[in-house]
Amino acid sequence: MLSSSGATAETLDRFYEDLCGYSTSPLWLVQEEALVAEPRSKALPFLWRWRDLQPQALRAGDLIGTADAERRVLMLLNPGLNRMATTNSMFAGLQIVMPGEAARAHRHTPAALRFIIDSQGGSTTVNGDRIPMYPGDLVLTPNWTWHDHANDTDDPIIWLDGLDIPLVHMLEAVYYEPYPEDVQPVTEPTDSSLTRYGAGTLRPSWETSGAAHSPLMHYPWQQTWETLQRLAPPRLTAAPMTA
Ligand code: GTQ
Ligand code: FE2
């Protein structure tokens, strides 16, 4: 049977005030909001348009040097969230590297993915593996892997970054380390993660990856497109992002 004390409002007010002084609070006053009500996200639907942002990225390329910005990134901040976040768990940004530039090597506990938009052979090096980047490619830099970006082409390169910074930040596990030099050495043949692991279920028998993450860092658009085509109705024929 449920019980009732009959305590007056004043008595309860005094009790709650006292609890406050012990850094304590009654759950029964917030139980509904804390546990019963379904989540209502503060994140809002929002559209960032390429035609708006590309000129601003190029402007950043003109106005900001690599001495002022280790990463030249326009953050896509959700208008409903008052923090460095695009969704509750993910951060996204547009990054631009100008011709002849390199974005210095570092590593951090948040993991990153990059969807390449403009690049005809700019590159990201991940743990010594240099990955050439073309439009539509997906490049991964798992947590705590060394990475730097280079643009040895004649045109600016731009891609969309996605990092789980908000999630790792919430866990109070964001750590960062600069590489001792500006650029890390390339220690593998170009695109070696793709060479070894890009054939899906066909893997070299002598490779034993002990890493806690996928050993494949590069998903070239051409492969993605061909796979989608095999899955889709036959009317899809032209690859819109083909380099
Ligand atoms: O390219 O290494 O958008 O470290 C945010 C943090 C990109 C990067 C971002 C980063 C990077
Ligand atoms: Fe980074």
From TrEMBL:
It comes from the Eukaryota. One of its GO terms (molecular function) is dioxygenase activity. Residues 94-161 form the Cupin type-2 domain. CDD domains: cupin_GDO-like_N. Pfam families: Cupin_2 (PF07883). InterPro entries: Cupin_2 (IPR013096), GDO-like (IPR047183), RmlC-like_jellyroll (IPR014710), RmlC_Cupin_sf (IPR011051). Keywords: Dioxygenase, Oxidoreductase. PANTHER family: 1,2-DIOXYGENASE PROTEIN-RELATED (PTHR41517), CUPIN (PTHR41517:SF1). This is Gentisate 1,2-dioxygenase. It comes from Geodia barretti. The lineage of its organism: Eukaryota, Metazoa, Porifera, Demospongiae, Heteroscleromorpha.
